[in-house]
Amino acid sequence: MIDFTLSDDQKQLQELARKFAKEEIIPKAIHHDETGEYPREIIKKAWGLGLINTHIPEDCGGMGLGVLEGCVVTEEFCYGCSGIATAMEANTLAAAPVIVAGNDEQKKEFLGRLTSEPLLAAYCVTEPGAGSDVSGIRTQAKKVGSDYVINGSKMWITNASVANWYFVLAYTDPSLKHKGMTGFIVPADTPGITPGKKEWNMGQRASDTRGITFEEVKIPEKYRLGKEGDGFKIAMSAFDHTRPTVASGAVGVARRAMDEAIQYSLTRKAFGQPIATYQAVSFMIADMAKEIEAGRLLVYRAAWTIDQGERNTLFAAMAKAFCADMVMKVTTDAVQVFGGYGYSKEYPVEKLMRDAKIYQIYEGTSQIQRLIIAREIFDRA
Length: 381
Known about the structure:
Layout: H1 8-35, H2 40-48, H3 67-80, H4 82-101, H5 104-116, E1 121-124, E2 140-144, E3 147-158, E4 165-171, E5 181-187, E6 193-195, E7 209-220, E8 224-225, H6 231-267, E9 269-270, E10 273-274, H7 279-307, H8 313-338, H9 349-356, H10 366-380
Parallel strand pairs: 1-4
Antiparallel strand pairs: 2-3, 3-7, 4-5, 5-8, 6-7, 9-10
Helix pairs in contact: 1-3, 3-4, 3-6, 4-5, 4-6, 6-7, 6-8, 6-9, 7-8, 8-9, 8-10
């Protein structure tokens, strides 16, 4: 039996997130986009309502909800502003390696921090010379007695300067390539950590994106995740949990762009009638609707699969690739529906188009997703 409806609890969560986006995010989105100011007060309110950290297990103070519930919330948040949503949802990616590979003590300490007060965390893998090629990272962690000493630099790290702790991927044995990588939990107040300047990005400007330098950063062995050499596997497995959520954010941005295009096309007249009556415009909006619906179904399939305890790598990559490309097309077409006004900052669709582009880049580019999809297909052949 197939059932495409959300449960009553999921619907209530969706309505709460939708109301929050309407009342707290949308009215402040332009301000944060123009100033780049971090949305700290919005985050505190969302945390107070239980709309952040829904994925953290109950024994660590969380709600213990599934990936699907996280996708439902994220779609609504990103409908409001994907930059503000990214600032809030970065905890999902940072916490995923701890959920996947942390021991009980690590989970209670670091996941517990996120649920005891509105704190944030960050996932530190990308480097100035290593993005899609994770094996190209240069950060190293050397064992010194019962401690590890980390040296290196990370780049494009969301929540870099506001995080309470970081997940950091580093080489413990560079000669082994990706099998020589190890993951660590690093408290942000550890001496030797220096966040860089805030990046002024094309879109999602409310997100705190910076580089981080780790210089002789000493951490105890108890903050190592798993065994030495498990880091790459842990870091990548986190994406199976988070890529559906990221894809759901793209659905939210696309849905907002479509709604804006619909409302504009019903009021804007050309040659004496609303432009919505012209096939050239109505067909663009029809395409938006069908692609958004298809994207959401892929998101739900990827989320449902991992929530069932099954491996979802293929579906997660499909959802991420499809929704990233979809949101770019939908927002571009929304600008086209608005015509010259769409190119102006006075109307919302230019921001949506700027915000959309990053979905084809972060958490694995659209090209990397296609590599994963192809690999999964041929491995099963």
